[in-house]
Structures are given as structure tokens and as C-alpha cells.
Amino acid sequence: MSDLTAAEFDPTGFVDREDEARRFENLLGLATHRRILAVSDDSGWGKSTFLKKLRHQCDYDYLVPVALVPLEEFDDRPDEFELVSDVAGQLTRADVPFPTFNELNRLRSFHDSGIFVKSLRGIVNASNATISGGQVAGTIFNIEHYDSVGAPPWTDEADRQAKQLCLNAFLAELFEAARDQKIVIIFDNVELATVQLRHWLLKTLVTDRILAELGAKHKLIIVMAGEKLHPRLASMFKDLERFEVIPALGSLRPSDVDRLFEVKGLNTLPSDQLTWLRERIVKREVSLAKALAIAGILQVG
To answer: What is the maximal distance between C-alpha atoms in the chain?
Structure first.
């Protein structure tokens, strides 16, 4: 769903943001223990386009597996399982394996607790690192319980526990893969995510997994962007030292604005109109999105 094709981002039409791109490149170099890049700014200043640039660089310059997820696309599917499924699908296509997650999810789709427990037994016996312990889920998928009373019916609670086991498998396999190779996951429009998805991202993934590992032995890089994301993170975390934070995208130079109008085909406007729009953008008085909209209206007029 969120997989972007090369046709959806043209690097020749992207202007500036080189300073911000270098900060991402430094993070990708793993020179420090930081593994999270947070990009914050008001609406209309090019955060989403910048993230597409980062994805393009991962695909073609750095050759790093990457997933880009616009969180607003999940407003009608607030279950974090849907989010993880999307990320796992993108990374699988980039040759990052998720065999346990994919197998458990396939078996879950059958709604048969018997075959689900049999699969769990094999996973637990084969690798305690993937899903550890005999009590692999609450009351329904307890292997010892299954041995004594048989397979329970498939209920909403069974499906909830099955999804949780899939989520656990995803995280285990993600961090296992990230021990050996760099992996990048990009989350856009954090402010538009549901409370449940934002909790999974900031608590389960960031706090419980990335920030909890002080040594940062993994090579997983998380990029997140959102409107006023910086103050949100500052209110949630006492110390942002573990984050690489861009509080706002830098101001564009006049030459960058001229190049932007050129690639958008808006450089045929009268010079006084171009000068007025250029000054408003450079001074951050009018956002890029609004300025381009105004330029389009003026051009038509």
C-alpha cells in the first residue's frame, strides 16, 4: 500500500535540504548511539517530500532496505497489526526476511487454533529467541494448556492474542536482521496517527526497544516526521540526547526558490510576482505549499 515506486519521486525536481540529508547520512553511518531522526516543522514546508528523498537515497545511493509509512493512511485501520504488516511487506520486498511473522500471520488467517498452536510449538522448540517461553500468549495459546484440554475455539480474544504473537515475532525478527545489516523505517505525519498507533511507535518501538538498548548494537534507523513533533517529543521524553532532532527544516536560499519555481514550471510569472513570492518563502512568511498554490493561481490568471 505505502510502497513508493521510483516514478513517484523525481530527484531532479527536489530542491536543497542538503544539510538535513547530511544529518541523516551521519546517522546512517552509525558513528554514535543515536538511531532516531525526528523531523519537525509546520505544515507545508516539505517534510513529506524530504522523507521521499531519504527513501530514494536508501534505495539507490546507500542500498539500504527501507520502508516508508504515511501514518495518515491508517486512520480507518488503527490496529498496529495493520501498520506492522505494511512495514513487514515493504521490508520483505527489500530482502529482509520475516519468516516467523509471515507464517504465524498466514496461520492466523485460517482461524484454526489447532494448527496455530502446532505451529507455535515448532517455533518455540526451534528458537526460543523468536518467541520465548512455554507461556507464549495469554490463556488461549498456552501450549501446556492446549496439551491438557485441547484446542480452544477461535474467538475475538484468540485473534487478539494471535496478532500479539505476530507483533512479537515481527519485532524479534526485525532486530535480529538489524544486527547484521542497516535497516531504515520512515514514519510520516506522526501527528495524524491514531492514539493507538502513536503509542505503539513511541512506546513499544522507540522507548521499549530502541532507547532501552543503551549500547545500540543494532543497525535499525527510525525516521519520524510530523507537525510540531519536536515539542511533542520534548514533553514525552526527559532527555532527547538519544534523538537526532531537526526542530524545523532550514530556510531556503533565494536561488533554491528560483530553482523550485523552475522545476515546477512556474518561472514564467512576472518578475515582481516571483520576487514577492521568493521573499515570503525565504522569510518563512508563506509556506512552500501555499506559495506554490498562489503561483499556480497567478500563472493561470
So the answer is: 82
Is the Cβ–Cβ distance between 298 and 264 less than 8 Å? no
The DSSP 8-state label assigned to residue 224 in this structure reads: E
**CA-to-CA dists, residue 109 to 17, 119, 162, angstroms:** 44, 13, 10
Q: Could you tell me the residue range of the domain that residue 214 belongs to?
A: 6-96+181-246
Assigned domain for 1 exists: no
Does one domain contain both 89 and 115?
Answer: no
Helix (H) or strand (E) holding 103: helix 99-108
Q: Which three cell numbers stand for residue 232?
A: 511533542
Domain boundary among 174, 203, 225: 174
Please check whether residues 125 and 90 belong to one and the same domain.
Answer: no
In a domain, 185, yes or no: yes
What is the rounded CA–CA span in Å between residue 301 and residue 293? 12
Radius of gyration of the chain measured on its C-alpha atoms: 23
Q: 215 and 175 in contact (C-beta within 8 Å)?
A: no
- The 10s digit of each residue's pLDDT in 158-183 is 888 889 889 989 999 999 999 999 99
Comparing CA positions, the residue from 210, 214, 290 lying closest to residue 38 is 210
Query: Cα dihedral sign for 15, 248, 187, 286?
Result: negative
Facing residues of 36 across strands? 222, 243
CA distance 128 to 45: 47
The residues, ordered by sequence, that sit 6+ positions from 175 with a Cβ below 8 Å of its Cβ are: 209, 218, 220
Domain count, the chain: 3
Q: What is the pLDDT of residues 180-230, one digit of tens each?
A: 999 999 999 999 999 999 999 999 999 999 998 877 789 999 999 999 999
Q: How far apart are CA 151 and CA 140, in angstroms?
A: 9
33 domain residue, yes or no: yes
Distance, CA of 222 to CA of 210 (rounded, Å): 9
The whole-angstrom distance between residue 5's C-alpha and the CA centroid of its chain comes to: 16
Amino acid 217 reads: K
